[in-house]
């Protein structure tokens, strides 16, 4: 009998037994089918397979499925490993391409830096030369001011010594100074100040003596001393120039 379950036609295996008997008995009786050793061997093989299938089918299925899952898992793991290696290789190739680009960028940056350094190298000596020249001029001006101040101090000291000595040795000047002091105390008009007159007299004498000195020789000696000082500064500081004997700057680099 054919039964219908959930819209699907199915055959109950129990119906196969009477149907098999009904077919097998006349077939054997009328010798439509000869039973021999091959038939018996086939029947035993079929029974063995049926027994194994019915008793151990689920277990064999689980074992085979487990083996299949293990094989699939190993295959997937091998594929993942291969994919990982391929991705790593791809990253290496990309990095190599980036390395080439980075090297080109670095080379371009180096060339640009060298150009800027060369440009700065052309300007830097000019700034250094300017700074050295300004320092040299400042030193010369300072030295000239110091020389003049020293000359003033020296002249005043010499004048003071000369006037003091003259007043101590000249009774007339001492008397005149005393009279002027008394007149000032009384509020009367005093005469010419003898001290001031002595200073003026000394300065006139000093000027006349200075006129007798060879001015060119004195200037030459003063310039030689000044050149020695500025050239010593140039040597110590490593300036780009020095002064010759005529006072003209000469480049040393």
Present the secondary structure layout:
Blueprint: E1 2-5, E2 8-11, H1 16-29, H2 37-169, H3 171-186, H4 194-212, H5 215-237, E3 241-243, E4 249-251
Antiparallel strand pairs: 1-2, 3-4
Helix pairs in contact: 2-4, 2-5
In angstroms, what is the radius of gyration? 65 Å
**Number of strand elements:** 4
Order of helices and strands: EEHHHHHEE
Task: Report the end-to-end length measured between terminal Cα atoms.
Answer: 123 Å
User: Biggest sheet, in brief?
Assistant: 2 strands, antiparallel
Query: What average pLDDT do the residues reach?
Result: 77
Helix content: over 70%
Unreliable residue runs: 1-8
Supply the number of helical segments: 5
Query: Could you give the order of strands across the largest sheet?
Result: 1-2
Instruction: Determine the structural class based on helices, strands and strand pairing.
Output: mainly alpha
Relative strand content: 5-15%
C-alpha geometry: rod-shaped
Q: How would you sum up this structure in a few lines?
A:
Helix content is 81%, strand content 6%. The protein is mainly α.
Structural notes for this entry:
- The chain is mainly alpha-helical and 253 residues long.
- The protein has a domain at 2-68.
- Helices cover 81% and strands 6% of the residues.
- The chain is built from 5 helices and 4 strands.
- It has helices at 16-29, 37-169, 171-186, 194-212, 215-237; strands at 2-5, 8-11, 241-243, 249-251.
- The strands form 2 sheets. Strands 1-2 form a two-stranded antiparallel ribbon. Strands 3-4 form a two-stranded antiparallel sheet.
- The radius of gyration is 65 Å and the shape is rod-shaped.
């Amino acid at each position: 009998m054919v039964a219908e379950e959930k819209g699907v036609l199915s055959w109950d295996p129990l119906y196969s037994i009477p149907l098999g008997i009904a077919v097998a008995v006349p077939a054997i009786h009328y010798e439509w089918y000869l039973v021999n050793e091959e038939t018996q061997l086939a029947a035993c093989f079929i029974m063995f397979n049926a027994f194994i299938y019915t008793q151990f089918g689920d277990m064999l299925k689980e074992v085979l499925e487990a083996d299949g899952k293990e094989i699939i898992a190993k295959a997937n793991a091998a594929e993942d490993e291969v994919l990982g290696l391929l991705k790593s290789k791809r990253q290496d190739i990309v990095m190599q391409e980036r390395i080439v680009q980075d090297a080109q960028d670095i080379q371009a940056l180096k060339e640009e830096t060298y150009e800027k350094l060369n440009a700065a190298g052309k300007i830097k000596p000019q700034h250094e030369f300017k700074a050295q020249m300004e320092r040299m001029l400042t030193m010369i001006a300072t030295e000239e001011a110091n020389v003049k101040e020293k000359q003033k101090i020296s002249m005043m000291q010499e004048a003071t010594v000369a006037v003091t000595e003259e007043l101590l040795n000249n009774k007339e000047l001492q008397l005149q100074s005393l009279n002027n002091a008394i007149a000032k105390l009384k509020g009367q008009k005093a005469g010419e100040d003898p001290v001031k007159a002595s200073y003026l007299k000394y300065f006139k004498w000093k000027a006349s003596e200075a006129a007798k000195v060879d001015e060119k020789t004195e200037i030459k000696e003063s310039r030689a001393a000044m050149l020695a000082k500025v050239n010593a500064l140039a040597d110590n500081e490593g300036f780009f120039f020095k002064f010759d004997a005529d006072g003209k700057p000469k480049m040393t680099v």
